Inverse folding.
């Protein structure tokens, strides 16, 4: 006999509790999440939760949602289980905010129209070329162990040549191979910065959706922007020299898409050199220009070793390779290479060999040329659809590269409601609040991952939600 749907939910939760996977004190998934997981109405979920509450296994707590209060063993005897929940909240590294956690989980769900993802569509992945390169690498493999602390030398040489074409003349000894830009930021935060240092950054910024610097005891100080980039005259040192650093995404800024103009880059470098403020330049979107190539990187203007430069293949080729790079003065790279070895003993050798093949051949440039053509088509569809459905209730600027459109919704609608309502309609977006956007009226829409039809359908659905829920 087929079990009722509410009983399937009960059995699932009981199994999680009895195995200790959901320990006493743990918060269970929300009703909305469980309804989506099991493909049922929230009323079915409520029936299941009420029965579990009657059994004494869970209870609702104000401000904490529904938490596990007992397991089958504690109900049967006097012995209490260890409450791991207390340890979970005591860790050094801060958790992501709840909205970011929900986004991260939903991004792996194929049922959603993904207007949030900061990555390219699988349709743009060069599968045949990747298969061919992996096959060639596998035929040339010798038994391999750990790589050099700074990474595979052939890959670092390939990165060095790649950067020279973009105006950055740096030797392989000043390059550290990392597992993406996020690891580079983590290494910088634990290896170079003093406790209670100030990190200047654009506001809004991608960095606000992370906890990497805050967990290391840093203070974030937001800087206003205009359509030319960060306003240099807004930087004001409040601490002594050596306790400030600037983090910036000058090329196709995340989330706003702003491209910092060349003159503003010169002003920023002049100020930071004069005030002795080191700079972290996050340039992972540089190759994704659509109209024209961006100005030279800040690092290309650096004659004093003032800039730490971050690049990656995650946005342009494949996030699954987990290959990025950090460029800086040799003593800094030596220090961070030592820390990386302590953390993971180096990035995957196989990924490094594959990345080297891409960068040292013409394949990468050909791939990027195709990506730009496809992004131009996707951007056009997104902008036309926004114009068609959201012109009366929102404003935006056309991005010159990457795959984000920063959309301002008119004040008549509260954007904080839009995320949840869109999620219930099967559409995933990034609300501006996760980037510390003060006005609270922005959303970041991505046209990089969803199909053209999904882009149009998703934007139409958003317009319906907004138009039908004006206050």
């Amino acid at each position: 006999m087929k079990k009722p749907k509410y009983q399937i939910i009960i059995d699932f939760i009981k199994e999680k509790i009895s195995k200790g996977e959901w320990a006493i004190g743990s918060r269970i998934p929300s009703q909305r999440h469980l309804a989506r997981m099991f493909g049922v109405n929230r009323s079915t979920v409520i029936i299941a939760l009420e029965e579990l509450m009657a059994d004494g296994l869970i209870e609702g707590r104000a401000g904490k949602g529904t938490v596990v209060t007992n397991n089958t063993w504690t109900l049967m005897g006097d012995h209490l289980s260890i409450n791991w929940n207390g340890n979970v909240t005591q860790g050094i590294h801060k958790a992501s905010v709840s909205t970011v956690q929900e986004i991260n989980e939903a991004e792996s769900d194929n049922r959603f129209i993904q207007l949030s993802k900061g990555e390219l569509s699988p349709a743009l992945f060069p599968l045949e070329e990747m298969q061919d390169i992996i096959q060639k690498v596998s035929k040339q493999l010798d038994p391999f162990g750990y790589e050099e602390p700074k990474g595979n030398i052939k890959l670092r040489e390939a990165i060095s040549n790649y950067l020279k074409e973009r105006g950055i003349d740096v030797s392989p000894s000043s390059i550290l191979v990392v597992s993406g830009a996020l690891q580079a930021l983590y290494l910088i935060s634990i290896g170079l910065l003093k406790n209670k240092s100030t990190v200047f950054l654009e506001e809004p910024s991608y960095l606000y959706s992370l906890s990497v610097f805050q967990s290391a005891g840093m203070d974030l100080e937001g800087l206003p922007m205009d359509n030319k980039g960060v306003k240099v005259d807004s930087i004001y040192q409040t601490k002594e020299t050596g306790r400030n650093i600037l983090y910036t995404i000058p090329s196709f800024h995340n989330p706003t898409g702003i491209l910092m103009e060349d003159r503003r880059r010169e002003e920023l470098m002049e100020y930071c050199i004069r005030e002795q403020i080191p700079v972290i330049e996050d340039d992972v979107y540089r190759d994704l220009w659509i109209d024209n190539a961006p100005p030279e990187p800040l690092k290309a203007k650096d004659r004093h070793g003032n800039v730490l430069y971050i690049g990656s293949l995650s946005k342009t080729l494949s996030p699954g390779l987990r290959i990025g790079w950090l460029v800086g003065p040799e003593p800094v790279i030596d220090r961070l290479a030592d820390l990386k070895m302590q953390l993971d003993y180096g990035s995957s050798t196989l990924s490094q060999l594959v990345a080297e093949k891409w960068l040292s051949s013409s394949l990468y440039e050909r791939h990027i040329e195709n990506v730009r053509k496809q992004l131009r088509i996707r951007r056009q569809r997104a902008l036309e659809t926004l114009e068609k459905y959201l012109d009366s209730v929102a404003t935006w600027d056309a991005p010159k590269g990457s795959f984000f459109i920063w959309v301002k919704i008119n004040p008549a609608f509260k954007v904080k409601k839009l995320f949840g309502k869109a999620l219930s309609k099967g559409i995933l977006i990034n609300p501006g609040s996760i980037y510390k956007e003060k006005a609270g009226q922005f959303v970041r829409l991505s046209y990089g991952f969803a199909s053209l039809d999904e882009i149009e359908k998703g934007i139409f659905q958003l317009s319906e939600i907004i138009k039908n829920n004006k206050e």
About this structure: The mean pLDDT is 89.
